[in-house]
C-alpha cells in the first residue's frame, strides 16, 4: 500500500515524519490529521504550486522540503509555523520571497536553483540562521541586514550575478563555509585547458562505480598509457547540473587549479572525446583503507558532521590530521583557491593520521581580488578548520600529554576567534602544527 493511501486511510496516525512524492498537484488535506505529531514533511518531486492558507495548523512542524515542484513564490503561510527551522524549496520557479514566509526559528534555508533576484531585508531578523543556500539564482546583492545574522556559518551564493562580495560578509563571526564561484566577480572561473593532459576516452576501460555525488559519478578505470603500460585510476564524470554548492565546471576548474600536494587527490588529466560530450577528470585511485573521517551534518546537527559512535583518535593522529589539512589548505590558498567545504566528511583517512582533502564542489577562486579581501576569505576557512579541530579534540583518546593537548586547544581557540582579523593564516597554523608534530609528546 502506497504512502498516500496509508495517509488517507488513517494508518499513519501519530507519525512524526512523512514523505510524499506521487505527482501531487494539491496539498492532501489528510496531512492535517497528523498536526499533533508531524515534525518533518517532505513533499519534494511533485507538481505543487501552493500550500493551503491554514498551513499553520501543522504547529509542530520543524522541517519542510518542497524541492522540485512548481512554486513561483515562497509561500507566505510558512510564517504561521512557529517551530519551522528548516525550509527547502530547491529547483522550483521561485521569483519572490515574501518577508511573511520567514519564521523566527529559521536555522536552515535552501532556495537553490530558482529565479530569485532579491531577498527581503527581514531575513536579517532570522538571527538563528546557520545555513543559507542560494546557489543558482539571479542575485546581485544580499540584504545588508544579514550582517545581524551572527550565527550564520554556511553560505552558498555560487552561480548568481554578484560583481563583488559585500564587505560586511567578512565580519560575520561564525562564517566558515563559503561558496561563490560562477559569479561575475570570478572573472576567470576556469583553469586553462592546457594545464593538464587531455586523455582520450577510448584509452580508458571503465570498471565498477565507486561512488556518486551531487556533481558527478566516480568509476574505477584502467588507463591505457601505451601498448603495454596500464594503470588503475578513478574517473569522475560530471553531470553538468547545478548542485547546492554551485556549478560542476567550477569544481572541475578548482580540481585542476589545485595542482599537486601530498594531501590532495592528484588529477592526472581531463577527458577528451567522450561519446556524449561529458566533462570528466582522471584522478588518482585511492587505497581501499581510506575512509571518510565523518558523515555529513544531519537535520539536527545542521552544520556539524556526524561521527560514528565510539570514534576516537590518539593525540598523535589528531596532530597529523590537523597538520595535513592545514598544509593542504595553505597550498590551496597560495594557488588562489578557497576550498569552501573544509569538513571532516570531505576528508579521507586511513586511521593512522594519513589523510586526503577532497570534494571541490564548493571551491572558489580568490586570486585577483583585493589583497585585504583575499586574507579575509582565507580566515573564513580558518574558522572551518577550527570546527574540525574542535571535533577531533573532543574525541581524543586519554591519557594524552597535557602540554601538547593544551597547545592544540589554544590553537583551536585562536582559529575560532570571533574577530576574524585576529585569526592566524594557514601559513602560521602549519608552522605551529609542524612543531607539535615534531614533539615526542604528540606521538
Notes on the protein architecture:
The protein has six helices and 19 strands. The chain is α/β, with parallel strands linked by helices and 443 residues long. The protein folds into three domains: 3-179, Leucine-rich repeat, LRR (right-handed beta-alpha superhelix) (Alpha-Beta Horseshoe); 193-283, Phosphorylase Kinase, domain 1; 291-442, Transferase(Phosphotransferase), domain 1 (Orthogonal Bundle), CATH 1.10.510. The strands form four sheets. The chain has an eight-stranded parallel beta sheet with strand order 1-2-3-4-5-6-7-8. Strands 9-13-14-12-11-10 form a six-stranded mixed beta sheet, covered by helices on one side. Helix 4 packs antiparallel against helix 5 (402-415). The mean pLDDT is 93.
Question: What topology emerges from the helices and strands here?
Answer:
Blueprint: H1 3-8, E1 17-19, E2 40-42, E3 63-65, E4 86-88, E5 108-110, E6 131-133, E7 154-156, E8 177-179, E9 198-200, E10 204-212, E11 216-224, E12 230-238, H2 248-258, E13 267-272, E14 280-283, E15 291-292, H3 315-334, E16 337-338, E17 347-349, E18 355-357, E19 364-365, H4 371-393, H5 402-415, H6 426-438
Parallel strand pairs: 1-2, 2-3, 3-4, 4-5, 5-6, 6-7, 7-8, 9-13
Antiparallel strand pairs: 10-11, 11-12, 12-14, 13-14, 15-17, 16-19, 17-18
